[in-house]
Design a protein that fits this description.
heterodimer; A: mainly beta; 6-stranded mixed sheet; 5-stranded antiparallel sheet; 0% helix; B: 7-stranded mixed sheet; 4-stranded antiparallel sheet; 47% strand; globular
Chain lengths: 114, 117
């Protein structure tokens, strides 16, 4: 079975500072990995995904993530935080390209301080 | 392209009452998912449809939850009778199917926030 662990339920950064949200996964087969963002009272929006191509994945809004198989990690980063980045971030894993459910972590709430 | 539509957006009911949620996926998406997101947790799968057939309902509490996707397009999720622990956001997602398309990406609706009193 697959699982996702997100370290830190709440991360707070200053505006302009580096954002680092941690995600470790467990999977018995090569995974597909995703980061979604959820703004208050909204659904989940895909930020980026890893599907066994390039290990460094660039997404929307300046975010990127690097797949490290040896560390079973897929951490999300952004060089400079903006106030609009404040939201809940979820890491998720699936194990097939063909329409399999996502297994989500518990989420990390990002606060950006002016 | 229109996104995944869900209604209602909010619902408040008393325990033991029944409630139904509706989802209309992105046009042409064959796969539809219902997830339950309890406050402070990530979404968890309730049921997955491929066209109008059930692919995975192993985590659906079948004594009180039911779902259908009769014509392979929109879907309804029902809870009867509701319990306090059913208070959550119910998210619908869809993805395309077929070789060579973006079938691993799920597109989410805005969710229905349910409060059971």
């Amino acid at each position: 079975a697959q699982s996702v662990t997100q370290l830190g339920s709440h991360v707070s950064v200053s505006e302009g500072a580096l954002v680092l949200l941690r995600c470790n996964y467990s999977s018995s087969v090569p995974p597909y990995l995703f980061w979604y963002v959820q703004y208050p009272n909204q659904g989940l929006q895909l930020l980026l995904k890893y599907t066994s191509a390039a290990t460094l994945v660039k997404g929307i809004n300046g975010f990127e993530a690097e797949f490290k198989k040896s560390e079973t990690s897929f951490h999300l980063t952004k060089p400079s935080a903006h106030m609009s980045d404040a939201a809940e971030y979820f890491c998720a894993v699936s194990v097939d390209s063909g329409n399999t459910p996502l297994v989500f972590g518990k989420g990390t709430r990002l606060s950006v301080i002016a | 392209e229109a996104g995944v539509a869900q209604s209602p957006r909010y619902k408040i009911i008393e325990k033991r009452q029944s409630v139904a949620f509706w989802c209309n996926p992105i046009s042409g998406h064959a796969t539809l998912y219902w997830y339950q997101q309890i406050l402070g947790q990530g979404p968890k799968l309730l049921i997955q449809f491929q066209n109008n057939g059930v692919v995975d309902d192993s985590q659906l509490p079948k004594d009180r939850f039911s779902a259908e996707r009769l014509k392979g397009v929109d879907s309804t999720l029902k809870i009867q009778p509701a319990k306090l622990e059913d208070s959550a956001v119910y998210l619908c997602a869809s993805s395309p199917a077929g070789f060579g398309v973006d079938q691993e990406t799920q597109y989410f609706g805005p969710g229905t926030r349910l409060l059971v009193l």
